[in-house]
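Subject: for your reference before the review

Hello V.,

The reviewers asked for a structural picture of the protein, and I figured it would be easier to keep everything in one thread rather than splitting it across files. Below is the amino acid sequence we used in the manuscript, unchanged from the supplementary table.
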Amino acid sequence: MSRARAGTGTTAKYLPCAAAAPRGACSSGAAAFCSGGCGDALLFALKLPALAIRPWIAVCFLGYLLAVINNKKNVTYWYVYAAVIFNACGTVFLFIGAFLGKVFAVVNGEYLPGAWYMLSRYCAVATMAYIAIIALRCRKILGLHDMLAVVFYLLIPALAMVPEDFFPGFFPSYVAVALALVVIYVAIQAREMNAGCEKAQSVHEDSNVDALTGLMNRRAYDEKLLSTRAVKYVGVVFADLNGLKFVNEHFGHPAGDELLVSFAGMLGRHFRQEDCFRISGDEFVVILDGIADGGFFQRVKELRAENESKNEIAAIGIMHGSGAETLDLIHKAEREMHEEKKAFYRANPQYFRQ
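And here is what came back from the structure prediction:
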């Protein structure tokens, strides 16, 4: 990268290469290919692809951005197709202008901007503006992380172009392209890492969820018991479905599954999913940590009221106490549940389990 020498006679900001070139130099951008210009030819061959690739990097970033958006909302890839067509025309214009000496030339190891140089930047600028508009329209979908990636991607090439307005012979394209590539790489790697963490979290959550009811399973229940030891207060609900065997035998297992799902939905209306556990075929436990007795008994009262309105589809036992005694509280709640179940079968002998 070097400064251009001032042309003779005129001080225009952007000079045709022929005007800026020393006497005896060729007047086109292909001057570098003249006899004895191997060094200039090399610089010309390096500069032209650098100018040409800048808008295509923007197109690649646009495709990545739309892929991110498409994960959450279906979008049309015509946005990318339009950018590809536009930049293909711009690339043809760039190459023609470069070989005519209208974009830039290399003379004696120095880059000389041509009359069309500013026009050659419009493809990159227009594509970046296009990206900014799409990002702003989809900012809620992208979130903070991806919006920051967009901002830095657009900012780096834009700042790299500023010196060209003040120093016409200064070409920071290589720096702009390199930094833009770094931003794209970092953004993609960060998203892949986040996706990996989210996938691992999803796998962990799936392994802790009961497939039929959507409540937490026995594995999650065992983990919960370990986490409540240091909690001051714990409320426990132990429930067992009434007449499940009768329903399975007389109406089939699909009907029994419906009964299980129905009661799981009842629990979900009164407690958080992560606090409700299906620990065996028809047994459910709710563990509420950090809840005072008044709030706990009020929620249990509401649960019992709904259970009674559904013909007591479950027997329920409850206990409240210290988190250090959670397992003991569960055993006491289970005993209370069994007493309630006996009362149910005495009142409804037709459902008695043999």
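For the response letter, the relevant points are probably these. Strands lie at 104-107, 110-113, 233-241, 276-278, 283-289, 314-322. The chain is about 60% helix and 10% strand.

Happy to draft the paragraph if you're swamped.

O.
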